[in-house]
Amino acid sequence: PAPIPTPTGTATTLYKGSWFDVMYPQTFSAAPKTPTVIYNEQTITQTDEATFTSPDDAVEFFVYSPLWGGNPKTYLTITPTEELVDEKTTETPNTAPSGGTKIRWVTIKAKDGSYYRSFVSIRRQVETGSDLHHVFGIKYRDAAAYERYRAAYTSFKQSLRQYGD
């Protein structure tokens, strides 16, 4: 895989999922931690998605990065206790040799006002006719928490490395 971009201003830890790795702030807690497998002398958590929670519980980062397409278990769903705040979708046409891309940005808030969450879903068509799907998300207590962790979240998203088969 390509080298991992160096996040700015925050000590980080490497999280290795089944088909990806990502750098997250060292003070955050990662989930899931199991099940794991050893591959090429490295411990990998057998998952396509993971969350990373700040020590003050003000934010939670989310990543979904499978080998190919699919969807995260529940992250794209708006639950009955949530409401849609904003949604935007852009699409680029499918042109050879590269495929089309559909990017969806969504912001949701808890009906009781206890949190907001925003995510970006990126679907890309590849030459073989298959699609790739990545999702990044941030759940935050309020605008101040979002601003406090925004740079770390940006670095988190930029650090994703996708493995190939």
Task: Report what the structure shows.
With 165 residues, this protein is mainly β. The protein has one helix spanning 143-158; strands at 12-16, 20-25, 29-31, 36-39, 42-45, 49-53, 59-64, 82-92, 101-110, 116-125, 131-140, 161-162. Strands 3-6-7-11-10-9-8 form a seven-stranded antiparallel sheet, with helices on one face. The protein has a three-stranded antiparallel sheet with strand order 1-2-12. A hairpin with a 3-residue loop joins β1 (12-16) and β2. The termini are close together.
Shape: globular
The residue ranges in which pLDDT falls below 50 over 5 or more consecutive positions are 1-8
Q: Whole-Å distance between the termini? A: 11 Å
Query: On the 0-100 scale, what is the average pLDDT?
Result: 87
- Main sheet, how many strands, which sense, barrel? 7 strands, antiparallel
* Strand runs, count: 12
Structural class: mainly beta
Q: How do you describe this structure in short?
A:
This protein is mainly beta. Helices cover 10% and strands 46% of the residues.
Spell out the blueprint of helices and strands.
Blueprint lengths: L11 E5 L3 E6 L3 E3 L4 E4 L2 E4 L3 E5 L5 E6 L17 E11 L8 E10 L5 E10 L5 E10 L2 H16 L2 E2 L3
Antiparallel strand pairs: 1-2, 2-12, 3-6, 4-5, 6-7, 7-11, 8-9, 9-10, 10-11
